[in-house]
Specification:
By secondary structure, the chain is α/β, with parallel strands linked by helices. The protein has two domains: about 5-245, Type I PLP-dependent aspartate aminotransferase-like (Major domain) (Aspartate Aminotransferase, domain 2, 3-Layer(aba) Sandwich), CATH 3.40.640; about 245-370, Aspartate Aminotransferase, domain 1 (Alpha-Beta Complex). About 40% of the residues lie in helices and about 15% in strands. It has 13 helices and 14 strands. The protein has helices spanning about 5-20, 25-40, 50-60, 80-85, 105-110, 130-135, 190-200, 210-215, 235-265, 300-310, 325, 335-345, 355-370, and strands spanning about 45, 70, 90-95, 115-120, 145, 155, 160, 165-170, 185-190, 270-275, 280, 285-290, 315, 345-350. It has a seven-stranded mixed β-sheet, with helices on both faces. A four-stranded antiparallel β-sheet has the order 10-12-14-13. Strand 2, helix 4 and strand 3 form a beta-alpha-beta unit. Helix 3 (about 50-60) crosses helix 7 and helix 9 (about 235-265) packs across helix 13. The longest helix has about 30 residues, at about 235-265. The structure holds pyridoxal-5'-phosphate. Pyridoxal-5'-phosphate binds near residues 51 and 150.
Length: about 375
Amino acid sequence: MQPWLGEEEVAAVAEVIRSGWVAQGPRVARFERSFAARQEVGHAVATSSCTSALHLALLVAGIGPEDDVVVPSFSFIATANAPTYVGARPVFADVDAGTGNLTPATVEAALTDRTRAVVAVDQGGVPVDLDAVRELCDPRGIVVVEDAACAIGSTYRGRPVGAGADVTAWSFHPRKLLTTGEGGMLTTPHEEWADRAARLREHAMSVSAAARHAQVLAPAEEYLEVGFNYRMTDLQAAVGLVQLDRLDAIVARRRQLAAAYHAAIGEIPGLRAVTDPGWGTTNYQSFWVEVLPRHPLDRDTLLTRLAEAGISARRGIMAAHRQPAYADRNTGGADLSVTERLTDRTLILPLYHQLTDDELGRVVDVLRSTRGG
Ligand SMILES: *Cc1c(COP(=O)(O)O)cnc(C)c1O
């Protein structure tokens, strides 16, 4: 992955510096409004990362100690850490082999008497079948939080992902499609949840710092509960506004490159590439390939062959339940065999906006040369 940044971002940051207002202020507010409009959701609250947005999402949803939160183990570790931050227990559920995402069946297998929330991830950009998960969860009073860290520019049933969730968290880390260096966003249709998240990210102050500093005689503030400093800066938001304008071009180019990978990989026996599910489109944030048992090489040997050709690919998505942070905890004990299979057998191919057709051809040449007899 490489971020796509240009002179427009440089100019936007320079303008913020010249303005003298670099912390959370007018540009963060503008970025939030633009983001909410683009994602077709009522409210957006900018944060320091997706991890902090997930933490706030669980807090505003009322999740706390004694609660169980179903999460996929097949995800970046932050998905499991967020329930842990609020004192809840992450309960790991398995995923579908085709999408890498939770399904109603895998969630149901992980439910307990204490399940109060599910964090449904759009893994690698592939939209989760949110309506199906909600059909299971809504009647049980279980809140579905969407972890759309990877999924800006992906769609679900003709709308942007995240638009149908009670609360969604986004990432602007450079590993994702849209970057602000570090940064995140919480979106929600619920005004009270957005208001509380906006306060919690700013030490739970009754008056925002931006509002106080904009006045000569600042009103006295109160600290309404124990909050956090999860603010985004105006420097970051200025970059985010430019990046938002680039998003359509980024998604279009990624999908074009993915189509070229698909055409080539479809002819190589023993490799299976991630693709659009029936209910939406992926932004191909991670173009992952499963190395099937009938392929002559295993995943790690294939990664080595690519590295020998100067091509940096990566192991697939991690399994959180195998990490030391969670291996010795009670995380529910559901069957996670698909997670383990995907984690062991998948690799992520180079895919970024600036990747040329020739460079993609070099990757494909190595994959073709390893198909065996
Ligand atoms: C990247 C990622 C995160 C964390 O995002 P940060 O902005 O780095 O905190 C959370 N969940 C998933 C699924 C991710 O891929």
